[in-house]
Amino acid sequence: MGNCHTVGPNEALVVSGGCCGSDEKGYTVGGWAWAWWLITDIQKITLEIMTLQPKCEDVETAEGVAITVTGVAQVKVMTENELLGYACEQFLGKTVAEIKSVILQTLEGHLRSILGTLTVEQIYQDRDQFAKLVREVAAPDVGRMGIEILSFTIKDVYDKVDYLSSLGKSQTAAVQRDADIGVAEAERDAGIREAECKKEMMDIKFQADTRMADSKRELEMQKAAFNQEVNTKKAEAQLAYELQAAKEQQKIRLEEIEIEVVQRKKQIAIEEKEILRTDKELIATVRRPAEAEAYKMEQLAEAKKMKKVLTAQAEAEKIKRIGEAEAGSIEVVGKAEAEKMRLKAEAYQQYGEAAKIALVLEALPKIAEKVAAPLSRTSEIVILSGDGGRVTGEVNRLLAELPVSVNALTGVDLSKIPLLQKLTNPQA
């Protein structure tokens, strides 16, 4: 059995060992690999960039001047299988610090050897060339270790005996001298050139003034000719303009007259329409309402007339119905009265004198009521008589006279009725 091992793109996985004593090695960059237990060894080596700062102190140059040089180098392990194998042989199992130490010592050794072959001026003035030379000399040695120099630059160059500062001063003085000479020569040349330029400028200016005068004269002549031609054209144009303006004015006047005619026609048409509108408005506001009012009054009068007619017809019908009802009632009452009278007549014929007496007797209370009606309004009757028996005599006398009065009124003789005889003649 075994395990699966993985590494990122900044590491390389080295698989060594195998069955039957195999010495085959496998390299995997940013991937995975299978490793058998007990018989396979797994190791990793970094592929990241390593920054080195080589420093050579008090190294004598070709002129015997001791200087100190510092630099910065960027290196890394190469990923080609063969070169990666070289790096694994040299650095597998070492830490990054140990790897940096080996490479740093190699670079410092080459840097010292190269410093001994160059002058201070070569080192100081052309640092890029010096750094390039170091890379070219050191690259084969570190390459055999599987290491690649990505960059190498000189950081600083200085000494303890002020050689570089003196060199700078002398150089500065020489540069200042050359600068002053250059300035003087430049000023001289500038003065000569300025005079030549002024002469050339004057010549050119004279020529230019001459040409300008000629040009100005020709310009004035051309302007005069142009003005004459322009004035002629202006006069012609003015005349043509006035003629055309007169024609246009005439056309405008004709069009204005036509417009006035059209406007007048439109005004007449508008006035006619206004008359029609006013007529219609009068019809709508006066005539139509008057006709409507007249029609309304006519309809109201007709309605009132019809109402009266219908009311009269209804009243006549009512009277007719009432008359018919009353006539019928009277007829029925008359028939009933006639029947009653007939029956009474038959009764009177059948009972004779007794029936008449019964009728009289029935009528007596009514007659007495009518006779006593005036007396009903009398609150008190006083009979003045000195004799108490006289009152009784008066009453008897009234009762005795009663049959005579009834006989005179009805023709019935009440004296023949025995009961009345006793009432009217108590003595008998």
How would you sum up this structure, described in words?
With 428 residues, the chain is α+β, with helices and mostly antiparallel strands. It contains eight helices and nine strands. The strands form three sheets. Strands 6, 7, 8 and 9 form a four-stranded antiparallel sheet that branches. A three-stranded antiparallel sheet has the order 3-2-5, covered by helices on one side. Helix 2 packs across helix 4 and helix 5 packs across helix 6.
Write the layout of secondary structure elements.
Layout: E1 2-6, E2 11-17, E3 25-29, E4 32-36, E5 40-46, E6 50-52, E7 55-60, E8 66-77, H1 81-91, H2 96-115, H3 120-125, H4 127-143, E9 147-159, H5 163-351, H6 353-372, H7 388-410, H8 418-424
Antiparallel strand pairs: 1-4, 2-3, 2-5, 6-8, 7-8, 8-9
Helix pairs in contact: 2-4, 5-6
Summarize, please:
With 428 residues, the protein is of the alpha+beta class. 68% of the residues lie in helices and 15% in strands.
Terminal-residue CA separation: 184 Å
**Uncertain regions: pLDDT < 50 for 5+ in a row?**
none
Helical amount among residues, as a percent range? Answer: 55-70%
What portion of residues belong to β-strands?
Answer: 5-15%
Helix and strand string, N-terminal first?
EEEEEEEEHHHHEHHHH
Structural class: alpha+beta
What's the average pLDDT? 76
